[in-house]
Write a structure and sequence with these properties.
Layout lengths: L3 E12 L2 E12 L3 E5 L6 H9 L7 E10 L2 E2 L5 H6 L2 E4 L11 H9 L6 H14 L1 H5 L10 H13 L5 E5 L7 H16 L3 E6 L2 H7 L2 E6 L2 E7 H5 L2 H6 L6 H13 L9
Parallel strand pairs: 3-8, 3-9, 6-7, 7-8
Antiparallel strand pairs: 1-2, 1-4, 4-5, 9-10
Helix pairs in contact: 3-6
This protein binds adenosine-5'-triphosphate (ATP).
Length: about 270
C-alpha cells in the first residue's frame, strides 16, 4: 500500500463549547480519492477546515489529535503555508469573488503558491483545458456565472495553486444532476494527473462512485469506513445515504399500520 500522504489522527475539534469532531482518524493515501459522507452537521466541513487550518476563521479549535502531510506536521502552520505545502481547499458554497472577473479570480488562486510566473501560466492552461468555459468568460464578472460555472471557477482557482492534495467541500451541492455529473468527471480528471482528493459530500452516490475509500461521519465521529464499493453495498449506507428502501422494513411498517386501530376524530 502507498504511504499515506495525509494522516489525520484521533482529531477532536470544538467551536467554543460545541464538540464538532471526536477522535476522528482519516487517511488519504498519495494519489487517492477519499470521500467523507454524513448528514447535516456531521462534521464534514469541520474536518476540511482543520486540515486547511482555517478553523480559526470560524472560532473553532483543535482540542486533541494530529494532522500531517507527507510525514510533516501541519498543526502549527498558517493557512497560507498549508497552501504553499500543496494542500488547497475549495470551500462549500462556491465562494468566488463575485465582483472580480473570472481571470482575476484565477489569478488570485495563484497567489501564495510556490511556483513562479511560468508555473502559473501552465496552471492556467490546465484549468482552461479542464473548464473551457472559464477561458470563454475570462473577462466576465464571476457573479454573473451560473451555479455550476461558479463551482468550476472555485475549483479552477484552487488548481491555480497547483495542489498535491485538493480538499473539496460538497462540489455537487445545489447543482442539477447533469452539472453534478460533469463536476464529478472533472474530479476524476484532476485526480488522474496526480492530485489526491479528499472529497466531502452529502451526495453519497456520487462520492462512492469516485472514491476508493470512504468514511461516514455521524455526529462528529467516524461511524463506518472502508473500501467505497463495500460501503456502497452495505445495507446501512444504502438505506441512510443512498435512499434505497429496505423492503423488509417497509413491509413491516405497512403491516403495523394496517393492524393499528383507525384514528378517530375527537370529540367523536
Ligand atoms: P453540512 O453538511 O450541513 O454542511 P457538516 O457535516 O459539514 O454539515 P459542520 O459544518 O462541520 O458539519 O458542523 C459540525 C458541527 O459543528 C455542527 O454541530 C455545527 O452546528 C457546528 N458548527 C459548525 N461551524 C460552527 C461555528 N462556526 N460555530 C459554532 N458551531 C459550529
Amino acid at each position: 500500500m502507498a504511504a499515506a500522504s495525509l494522516e489525520v489522527r484521533a482529531l477532536s475539534v470544538g467551536y467554543g463549547p460545541v464538540r464538532a469532531l471526536r477522535d476522528v482518524t482519516v487517511d488519504v493515501p498519495e494519489g487517492a480519492i477519499v470521500a467523507v459522507l454524513g448528514g447535516n452537521g456531521a462534521g464534514k466541513s469541520t474536518l476540511l477546515r482543520a486540515v486547511s487550518r482555517t478553523l480559526g476563521f470560524q472560532r473553532g479549535h483543535v482540542t486533541s489529535g494530529s494532522i500531517s502531510f507527507d510525514g510533516r506536521p501541519l498543526d502549527r502552520l498558517s493557512a497560507a503555508r498549508i497552501v504553499a505545502a500543496g494542500v488547497v481547499q475549495v470551500p462549500e458554497g462556491r465562494q468566488v469573488f463575485a465582483r472580480m472577473t473570472v481571470a482575476d479570480n484565477l489569478r488570485a488562486g495563484a497567489l501564495g503558491s510556490a511556483g513562479g510566473r511560468r508555473s502559473s501560466a501552465e496552471a492556467l492552461g490546465r484549468v482552461h483545458e479542464l473548464f473551457p468555459v472559464l477561458a470563454d468568460r475570462a473577462h466576465q464578472r464571476a457573479g454573473l456565472l451560473s451555479g455550476g460555472e461558479q463551482q468550476m471557477l472555485a475549483m479552477g482557482r484552487a488548481l491555480m495553486a497547483r495542489p498535491r492534495l485538493l480538499l473539496l467541500d460538497e462540489p455537487s451541492l445545489g447543482l442539477a444532476p447533469l452539472m453534478a455529473a460533469r463536476i464529478a468527471e472533472t474530479v476524476q480528471e484532476i485526480n488522474a494527473t496526480g492530485t489526491s482528493v479528499l472529497l466531502v459530500e452529502q451526495n453519497a452516490a456520487i462520492a462512492l462512485r469516485l472514491a476508493s475509500t470512504a468514511y461516514v461521519l455521524d455526529v462528529g465521529e467516524v461511524a463506518l469506513s472502508g473500501p467505497a464499493d463495500e460501503l456502497a453495498s452495505s445495507d446501512e449506507v444504502r438505506r441512510r445515504y443512498l435512499g434505497v428502501v429496505d423492503e423488509d422494513a417497509a413491509a413491516d411498517a405497512s403491516r403495523a399500520q394496517a393492524a393499528a386501530p383507525t384514528l378517530r376524530k375527537w370529540p367523536a
